[in-house]
Amino acid sequence: MFAVGGAERILFDVINNLDKNIFEPKLVCLKGGEEKFSLWKNELESQGIEIIIIDPVVKMGRLKRLIKTMEYLKNEKPDIVHTQLFSADVVGRIAAKLAGRKIIISTEHNLNLADGIIKRIFKALTSRLSFKIIAVSEAVKEYAIAREGADPKKTDVIYNGIETEKFRFDGRDYNKKNIIIGAMGRLTFQKGFDFFIKSIARLNEPGLECLIAGGEDVRENGRESLENLIRDMDLEEKIKLAGLQKNPLDFYKKIDIFVLSSRWEGFPIVLLEAGMAGLPVVAAEVGGIGEVIKDGHNGILVKSGDIEGLSEKLKYLIDHPEERDRTGNNLKKTILEKFNISKTVRKYESVYIEAVNARKIYEKNIFIHKI
């Protein structure tokens, strides 16, 4: 199932920006049924990228889905199978191995702190089938090695990137009086929006507004729980749930401060997007966030769950427009220098070529399946 989140975003951007003179990517989804996928499906297909859905109406059991995936890969014979996220990692790795595919690459996107021991065992066992494991941050690399059995010798870091010009906004008014504070992400426990809401309850700034954007994860009833919290704290006039954003830049233009109050993160794409829009950022110091934000230079870091600290830092930025200007523009410079999607894609291409050369596969075109 192809949902709308950071992992899906980077997968989409890498596929879209691969050198098509060398690589022929196809996207394999294990399950269908995700309506929000249509936001990207049309664009991928318009670029001539084929999308294959193994179980379009989600009626197959796990074993049958694995067999169908294996049959597909056996028929198509891709040179490289690249898996993303838990289900695709486990099913994709096993199916690729059974189909005789020799190059299996996987990307680890997150600190999977919500995963139980069974998931970690499956990840550890199947990780041995991978030629290379890509972690999206040093924090994710350390986690994958320590908790998911990744081999340190074949685990590398490739930072996420974004199409910087797509999110660039240079017309921000840092001297605005009526401030709008925003957050964006899937409405899940991981993202810590409850921390954000409780920190806003401590602020009494006149005219302050807050927006939380993002779609609801099918596995959690996140929107309802946040609505209940907002109502219980009598914040319905101050905090609004803005829903899924088809054009995130429009959302970033509306707000004046961006908050990332997560419990854990791998390497959040929204941090890069918000930074390119010139937004000052207050973020929880978890996962790969500290690999982008240098506290006091290009953003402000707080401990995850520190509601009082988050509130105090937001108050500071509200009262100091010059700091909003300085940290927001410093973050934009950081992203332009280090986190452009072209750098990310070139590194993935190098991994693919290295893998092909290592396996002595000499083809005119390299045929990649992304699962």
Keywords, separated by commas or semicolons:
371 residues, alpha/beta, Rossmann fold, 2 domains, seven-stranded parallel sheet, six-stranded parallel sheet, 13 strands
Content-based structural category: alpha/beta
How many beta strands in the DSSP annotation? 13
Which blocks of ≥5 consecutive residues have pLDDT under 50? none
- The shape, in one word, is globular
CATH class of the largest domain: Alpha Beta
Query: How many strands, what sense, and barrel or not for the largest sheet?
Result: 7 strands, parallel
Number of domains in the coordinates? Answer: 2
Strand order of the largest sheet: 2-1-13-3-4-5-6
**Relative strand content:** 15-25%
- Average residue-wise pLDDT: 91
What is the number of helices?
14
Radius of gyration: 21 Å
- One letter per element, helices H and strands E, the order comes to HEHEHEHEHEHEHEHEHEHEHEEHHHE
Report the CATH superfamily of the largest domain: Glycogen Phosphorylase B
C-alpha termini separation: 10 Å
Task: Write structural notes for this entry.
This protein is an alpha/beta fold and 371 residues long. It folds into 2 domains: 6-161 and 341-370, Glycogen Phosphorylase B (Rossmann fold), CATH 3.40.50; 164-338, Rossmann fold (3-Layer(aba) Sandwich). Helix content is 42%, strand content 17%. It contains 14 helices and 13 strands. It has helices at 6-17, 38-46, 62-76, 86-98, 117-127, 138-147, 164-167, 193-200, 222-232, 248-254, 269-276, 307-319, 321-338, 341-358, and strands at 23-31, 51-55, 80-84, 104-108, 132-135, 155-157, 180-184, 209-213, 239-243, 257-260, 281-284, 300-302, 366-370. It has a 7-stranded parallel sheet with strand order 2-1-13-3-4-5-6, sandwiched between helices. A 6-stranded parallel sheet has the order 9-8-7-10-11-12, sandwiched between helices. Strand 8 (209-213), helix 9 and strand 9 form a beta-alpha-beta unit. The radius of gyration is 21 Å and the shape is globular. The chain starts with 5 loop residues before the first helix and ends with a strand. The model has no long low-confidence stretch (mean pLDDT 91).
